[in-house]
Write a structure and sequence with these properties.
Distance between the termini: 33 Å
Largest sheet: 5 strands, mixed
Shape: globular
Strand content: 25-35%
Number of strands: 5
Structural class: alpha+beta
Helix content: 40-55%
Strand order of the largest sheet: 4-1-3-2-5
Number of helices: 4
Radius of gyration: 14 Å
Order of helices and strands: EHEEHEEHH
Length: 135
């Protein structure tokens, strides 16, 4: 099993219904592939962690890279893991930006990360939440 963490930017600002659609489709596709994870959106940036078997991660990540709404997709980390951090989540989600209060994104991310013990995962997401809490 592996964990893949990446960051990307959207080409345009996505409306709430577009984000909802991305989340709905991602949850369906990830569940079918046996992939779990967490997505945090801040402004036009996405930070996502995916966990699953290497072939499944490759399939999901290739789909993400080919999505025309994304650009500047950068892998931050890809490591072998023995225990997944996100249980049965097909995709946990938190959003910053105009709909978030100044403290809500970091608080939401902290709640989502409560079961996660890996310090690098926590560091990426806590830092992202602080930077993008009002993005």
């Amino acid at each position: 099993m592996q964990r893949l963490i990446y960051i990307s930017s959207t080409r345009t600002v996505l409306a709430a219904d577009e984000l909802d659609s991305i989340l709905r489709v991602s949850r369906r596709n990830n569940a079918a592939a046996g992939v779990t994870g967490l997505l945090v959106a801040g402004g036009r940036r996405f930070l996502q962690v995916l966990e699953g078997e290497p072939a499944a991660l490759d399939t999901v990540f290739q789909r993400i890279q080919q999505d025309p709404r994304h650009h500047a997709v950068v892998i931050l980390s890809r490591t072998d893991i023995t225990t997944p951090s996100f249980g049965a989540w097909s995709m946990g989600y938190a959003q910053g930006g105009a709909t978030a209060t100044a403290a809500s994104l970091p608080d939401t991310v902290a709640q989502l990360l409560a079961p996660v013990s890996d310090p690098s995962v926590r560091g990426y997401f806590e830092g992202f939440a602080q930077v993008h809490k009002a993005a």
